[in-house]
């Protein structure tokens, strides 16, 4: 990504504004994608993404050049993003008046009711994965999203979650298993018979 | 779930990161690929809004957007009131590739926005870019002079490099001229596709052939007519009624009826025949 030109961390150390601009240019998509899948709402992903970078910028201004040089940009930003999101969820829970935006509801009316259910069936495989991911409990969704949307290593995810690496691997793995079992994905495009998760799009596709 | 892995290990390495991991191997493949598809790019304007709100001075970065044009979608970058670059969208796999190439060329970041700079859409629609100003990045003064002279070639007309040399003045070699032309930072806007070889046929201006052809076609350059004059060795075209001679693609030359077309192989020949040079297309120094 960054070899021939000076790496972003070097830019951050020598010219904060230029480095920050490059940071935003190269990482804004990843940060927003993670927040989009965590929050389930494009509007919130926009807001929380803005917040993440604003916090990053003010933090960077206080860092010494040496410290900026040693950053792992993506992991560092996603750490901030995860905190911003967790704070947001906590705040929203405390103030239910504004909480209606928090649920995944404003992207897809999610599940249960026959209407959306049918829509989910009709939707593309991608849409159904989005729905299933949004339904995943937070303690599974966060590690799965950080690992597979944010493209962080297990060590990096473990640091963000403040858990041992082994625990994180297990959480991600269980999260993926839960996704595979999710009703949205288990209902197959094949139509008719919902003969359980064996037919799921993402069921075990490799057999030894 | 983790029964018989090892078969395919795709996960660990979407970005070539992390260590080999048994956990990652195997059955998750399709699902992980599905998740990877959810990494969608941020909407245009997202990055620019961050920079604005963070208070990064606007002159520290450039903006760009994809705009429709008669020859297909173009990326056009701009900043500080100037157009800083353009490129066909089709030349890049992703917008990010364009951004990277832009950064490499200019040393500046360009972030996606949605609003075009003033005058751009009109310039693209009409093919006339006089209202735009350009920033040529790292080009030298002579190269900038060449490209500014190229901008004076009218819509739908062709000029040879010799004309450019004369317009720029100074002691430039043809090599320098062509190097400047090929360094055009704003293809389609700065009309290097309107340059011709000495015989009047379109020159290789460094753009992909098909793209340059589309630009000329869209401007109504009649390549068949251009070829006909080139084959006949007619570099200039005089009018038997006005006794003025022009480049064949000059708007005045195109109005000459076939009966009054007087072809010339050189300006000297035209002069000797008592013709004077057109003041619009300036086949000789005016």
Number of strands of chain B: 10
Major sheet strand order of chain B: 3-2-1-4
Given this structure, which CATH class of the domain at 1-104 in chain A is correct? Answer: Mainly Alpha
* Poorly predicted sequence stretches spanning 5 or more consecutive residues of chain A: 98-114, 189-200, 204-208
User: SS-based structural class of chain A?
Assistant: mainly alpha
Judging from the principal axes of the Cα atoms, what is the shape of chain A?
A: globular
Distance between the termini of chain B: 83 Å
How does this model look, in words?
The complex is a heterodimer of chains A (208) and B (286). Chain A is mainly alpha-helical and 208 residues long. Chain A has a domain at 1-104: Rna Polymerase Sigma Factor, Chain: A (Orthogonal Bundle), CATH 1.10.1740.10. Helices cover 67% and strands 0% of the residues of chain A. Chain A has eleven helices and no strands. Chain A has helices spanning 8-14, 16-39, 42-62, 65-69, 73-94, 114-122, 125-135, 138-148, 154-161, 165-181, 183-186. In chain A, helix 1 crosses helix 2, helix 5 runs parallel beside helix 9 (154-161) and helix 8 crosses helix 10 (165-181). The longest helix of chain A is centred in the N-terminal third of the chain and has 24 residues, at 16-39. Chain A is globular and about 50 Å long. With 286 residues, chain B is an alpha/beta fold. Chain B has four domains: 1-40, no CATH class; 46-126, Double Stranded RNA Binding Domain (2-Layer Sandwich); 140-221, Orthogonal Bundle (Arc Repressor Mutant, subunit A); 222-286, DNA Methylphosphotriester Repair Domain (3-Layer(aba) Sandwich), CATH 3.40.10.10. Chain B has helices spanning 29-36, 46-54, 95-106, 120-126, 141-150, 161-168, 174-182, 209-218, 223-231, 267-272, and strands at 62-67, 74-79, 82-88, 110-112, 159-160, 195-196, 236-239, 244-246, 261-264, 276-277. In chain B, the strands form three sheets. Chain B has a four-stranded mixed β-sheet. In chain B, strands 9-7-8-10 form a four-stranded mixed β-sheet. In chain B, strand 2 and strand 3 (82-88) form a beta hairpin. The N and C termini of chain B lie far apart (83 Å). The chains are: A mainly alpha (208), B alpha/beta (286). Chains A and B meet through helix 2, helix 3, helix 7 and helix 10 of A and helix 1, helix 2 and helix 3 of B.
